[in-house]
Prior knowledge:
Subcellular location: Cell inner membrane; Cell membrane
Pfam families: BPD_transp_1
Number of helices: 17
Distance between the termini: 12 Å
Protein name: Oligopeptide/dipeptide uptake family ABC transporter, permease protein
Main location: membrane
Radius of gyration: 26 Å
Helix content: over 70%
Order of helices and strands: HHHHHHHHHHHHHHHHH
CATH superfamily of the largest domain: MetI-like
CATH architecture of the largest domain: Orthogonal Bundle
Largest sheet: none
Shape: globular
InterPro entries: MetI-like (IPR000515), MetI-like_sf (IPR035906)
Strand content: under 5%
Number of domains: 2
CATH class of the largest domain: Mainly Alpha
CATH topology of the largest domain: MetI-like fold
Amino acid sequence: MGAYILRRLLLIIPTLLGIMVINFALVQFVPGGPVEQIIANMQGEGDAFSSISGGAGDTTTTAGEFENEGYLGARGLPPEFIKELEAQFGLDKPPLERFLNMMWNYMRFDFGESYFRKVSVTDLVLEKLPVSITLGLWSTLLAYLISIPLGIRKAVHDGSRFDTWTSGVIIAAYAIPSFLFAVLLLVLFAGGSHWQIFPLRGLTSDNFEELTLLGKVGDYLWHIVLPVTAMLIGSFATLTLLTKNSFLDEIKKHYVMTARAKGLSESRVMYGHVFRNAMLIVIAGFPAVFIGVFFGGSLLIETIFTLDGLGRLGYEAAVGRDYPVMFGTLFIFGLISLVVGILSDLMYVLVDPRIDFDRREG
């Protein structure tokens, strides 16, 4: 097992390097860099994209005009000023040199500062992390606490009336987009048109620091009910059906019939034999579920409930062409995802010690 983990750890380096190379290369072809963003704002055009696509009364800039002017946002501004901006952002260097310098800094976990906020990328991530941890951790935890017992019950009572109507509810929940469900929750329970039960925005109240410890816990839980419920709606449906199908596959195997023939109780058969084997695929999906919710599934929920987390940070960095934040968070998230993938394999062995990855690879 040690040799397998070592190989997986060594594979992190080329995998992460490939992720960074692809994304860095793609960014070189995307119009509207940080220099154009600043120039567009200085000229009152809002952002660089309006000048690229052409505003009201403007015609689209031709390729010849682009070559003559260098930057589209440079119209009316001294070339010396443009060069100063390029040097400030390090864009006066060749792309290969910029990439190598960036990766050398990232290997030392030096992610630089945001172009526009003058705050280090690490501090920005740490500032936004509590929101994403709240949404990701509670959503994943509740999804497993609901899905596993429900999926087992559906497998044991396969084809029954309970299985039928719960499947209908699960399919309906899966079909509803999380952001649409979030809007529905706001309308119904946050003072939209019906009941003002839960707060509309934020993770805490304005007087949070003045509350007692018990009051702070209650205030925190009160604020996360709606956003966590909105994120939970789709993930628990998938996990429930996955758990049910996994248990059904195991129940039909010969060792289950043998255990029953020996006179073991149904609960002993189910939880002493079937559970360990059936839960392998469910546990293997835990990292993907958590990473998906933690990094990728919270942007719309954060926007709807006015939560300032990693989802909004990444989106705003991409729109604003804040390259240090874009690539710094990409490196951090990619590294965490790869490490969590290794942890999922260790969870396999923890649940079923019979699994030997070294022997399988041999």
